[in-house]
Amino acid sequence: MNRYAGITFYRTEVSPGLTTFRVVVKQTDLFILAERDLTEEAVKVVREVRTPLEQYIFKNPVFLKSLVPLPFDPEAPEIVKRMLKAGEKAGVGPMASVAGAIAEAVGRELLRRELTKVIAVENGGDIFLSLNRDAKVKVFAGNTVFSELTILVPKELQPCGVCTSSGKIGHSLSFGKADAITVLAKDTAYADALATALGNILREKRDLKLLEREVKRREGILGVIAILEDRAFLWGRIKIV
Hints:
Blueprint: E1 19-25, E2 28-34, H1 39-59, H2 62-65, H3 78-90, H4 98-112, E3 119-123, E4 126-130, E5 135-139, E6 149-153, E7 160-165, E8 180-185, H5 188-201, H6 207-217, E9 223-228, E10 231-236, E11 239-240
Antiparallel strand pairs: 1-2, 2-3, 3-4, 4-7, 5-6, 6-11, 7-8, 8-9, 9-10
């Protein structure tokens, strides 16, 4: 998680007309936008989402540590299945999708319970969006000329996930050196896993061509933006505003 002076700096700008609140349960630290303050309800949902995941990891410790896809487990809890599928599709370990998977699971459950009609759940910079309106999302890319670039996520693409990986910022594992790689996909867990996978590719500027080929051969991507120093790659249905 990226912090400055104790404040999570990517949580400073929010959508007008919506209520914002923070939910922290163990390692999960969510920033949520909804029609009203759902802190109490969201805490319960986060616990419900985390418990089966924690229990599965306790019984299957390789799930926590694997950097490569693991075989699908039809008997696993639903969130574990989503993470296994995301990891397999992206070519990374299942935990590469954990932030996105939790964000979407919590958001969809709050919507399912009809506690709010619109929601955005951010988890460590990975976002599940279901706002029923066009959304603007800022991409933080360190000290590059593209830092705080704003992208538009159209209403018609939502619900969807907007997930970012960086080889220079934050605590998430990355083998690349990208300042930021943001992936837009319908499945937030997949967007999270793929942001990690693509981030691993980008180590120097010439890798942008390799990244482009990789993006074009993948299925299920709505858009990608990759930033490395003074170079940027934009693909798909992402618009700069």
